[in-house]
Design brief:
The chain has 323 residues and is mainly alpha-helical. The protein has ten helices and eight strands. Helix content is 64%, strand content 7%. A hairpin with a 2-residue loop joins β7 and β8. The longest helix has 26 residues. The N terminus and C terminus are likely disordered.
């Protein structure tokens, strides 16, 4: 406990961490309350944070891709709020996709789009929240990139599709695990093991050549080149087309706002906080990008919500994972 308060934490960093922790508690509480198997939901959240996102973020720091500023709650070299925020978007996104009538193979890409839009709001702000602590000047998140590399405000272009991959791999294996859990008649040993197996597989996939291909078209393209822009455009356009042509506003279940409000409140509050601290910090050079990503993301959620208020037409039998 003494070590936690050994170094002062800048107020903007502290409040960002506090918001993330509070929203995480709400997300887990509501996900557990609506689930047939609450203990499995908790295991999914824990495995995502500590076995997948948290380990990969630490791996990236060790690789020298970026560094983080100090936080009260750290997981290795990474503020715990980072994998927690990713988990919040992950769990609420899966919950949202349960209600939408969309082919299963599309879901990881759509969830990846949610992740990218959230990060277009978060990263430009975090990299500008620079403070000096104990003689060391650092940002809340500082990228270490080679001069001349493809970047958006000194953030590598591939960082944003990187959030797509975190969501894509994680949801791919979790959805597969949920399907197996369902087909085995919800056997306890399957439910207690698949979250950890799924996240280990996601972590392994994250460091395979497939990720380099999806981030900068390796081996045909190289890191830091124009191919990063090509893949960013592709991974933004693909899920958008899937929503327009394969979802088309069809729902499996209507929204019940008293139960489903975290689906919308979580990303809204994260975006509002990003906009507030951007204006409060005077980071007006990136304000347009943060506002644009927030408007697009919230507009997309509003569209989904309005479709979910309409009567749901009879369709093939749908067995939700956690009604």
């Amino acid at each position: 406990m003494q070590y936690m308060f050994q170094q002062p934490i800048p107020l903007p960093w502290f409040f960002a961490d506090l918001l993330t922790v509070l929203l995480t508690l709400f997300v887990i509480l509501f996900a557990v309350r609506r689930s047939l198997h609450p203990e499995i939901v908790i295991l999914e959240c824990l495995a995502f944070v500590f076995l997948y996102a948290g380990l990969f973020e630490n791996f990236a720091v060790v690789q020298g891709w970026y560094i983080y500023g100090r936080s009260l709650l750290m997981f290795g070299n990474v503020p715990l709020s980072v994998p927690l925020l990713e988990m919040d978007i992950f769990i609420t996104g899966l919950w949202l996709l349960e209600k939408m009538s969309v082919p299963g193979w599309c879901k990881p890409f759509i969830l990846g789009l949610f992740g990218m839009l959230q990060d277009f709001s978060l990263d430009p702000l975090a990299t500008r929240q620079v403070h000096t602590l104990n003689g060391l000047t650092t940002g809340r998140w500082t990228w270490l990139i080679a001069p001349g590399s493809a970047n958006i405000y000194h953030i590598p272009v591939y960082n944003f599709p990187g959030w797509m991959l975190i969501m894509l791999y994680g949801s791919l294996y979790i959805l597969l695990g949920r399907k197996i859990f369902n087909k085995t008649g919800f056997k306890s040993w399957v439910g207690y093991t698949y979250p950890f197996i799924a996240m280990l597989l996601a972590l392994i996939t994250m460091v395979t050549p497939l990720s380099q291909f999806l981030l900068w078209l390796a081996p045909f393209g190289v890191k830091g080149s124009i191919t990063e822009w090509i893949m960013l455009a592709f991974l933004l356009i693909l899920p958008t087309l899937l929503l327009i042509f394969l979802w088309r506003g069809r729902m499996n279940h209507a929204f019940v706002l008293s139960v489903d409000w975290p689906l919308f409140a979580v990303p809204v509050l994260f975006h509002i906080a990003d906009c507030f601290w951007t204006i409060a910090g005077g980071f007006y050079d990136v304000l347009w990008l943060i506002l644009l990503s927030s408007i697009i993301h919230l507009g997309l959620l509003l569209w989904i919500y309005l479709q979910g208020r309409k009567p749901v037409l009879p369709r093939e039998k749908f067995i939700p994972y956690s009604p």
